[in-house]
Amino acid sequence: MAEAVVYEAYSPEWAAAFKEEINNSPVYKQAAAAWEGSVGLVVHLVKQTLAQPGVPLRAHAASYRTRYWSSWREYRHMLWNNLALLSIWASMSWAFGAARFFSIYLLSVSIAGAVGIVLFTVQHNFEHSYAGDDAHWDIDTGAMEGTSFLVLPWWLNWFTVSIGYHHVHHLSAGIPNYRLAECHAEYQHLFPNVRRLRLCDVLGALDCILWDTHAQRIISMLEYRQRA
Fold it and tell me: What is the 3-state secondary structure (H, E, C) of 60-124?
């Protein structure tokens, strides 16, 4: 039997592999490419206005085609959402001062981001979580055995946009966050083997940071020491 190969999480080798995976992720590419769509829209409007000055700007915008959004209505929603956020930033900066507002804002975002990273981590890193390489990867197994169901209070589910139902998200990324709980309840007979974690299990799950490439699963530092 081949000797198990174990990589420590957050090591340089792990970081390089993780960075490559993120850069090649379709979701990451779509998010980064959304800016290209907006720039492309502006360029399209300028070109069409110069070529056909008598045509209304709305008609030029409607004629623009891109793979970054499916309809003009979808783009308007994204645009108004961003404008609303920028307006709130500007209003808060005017009311309380830009330095004070952004200091509190960055501190709050940092704390919330740290908590989010911890919650996200334990939904993939827990004892014997499935972690296959490219040759052995199976998307259904990854959703059922490689993600956990983080059982949270209802109010924390609201604040985390239902991140606890991560197994449902991995089965179908197209399900919006406000439908994840409903989907889980309706199809819960499909999830008897999904690992359930509670907040009291979070610290223990953070010890599971090693990838056993032979067994294709995540193991804890304690298990690795016991093997040695």
Answer: HHHCCCCCCCCCHHHHHHHHHHHHHHHHHHHHHHHHHCHHHHHHHHHHHHHHHHHHHHHHHHHCC
> What does the alpha-carbon distance between residue 123 and residue 143 come to, in Å, rounded to a whole number?
10
Give the predicted TM-score (pTM) of the model.
0.63
Residues 6+ apart with CB under 8 A from 6: 210, 211, 212, 213, 219, 224
Check whether residue 136 and residue 219 sit in a common domain: yes
121 shares a domain with 92: no
Q: Choose among 141, 210, 199, 195: nearest CA to 171.
A: 141
- Over residues 34-81, the pLDDT tens digits come to 567 778 888 888 888 888 888 888 888 878 887 777 777 777 787 788
Pairing label, strands 210-212, 217-219: antiparallel
Q: Final residue of a domain: which of 51, 71, 101?
A: 101
The H or E element containing residue 33 is helix 26-51
Task: Provide the CA 47 distance to its chain's centre, in angstroms.
Answer: 36
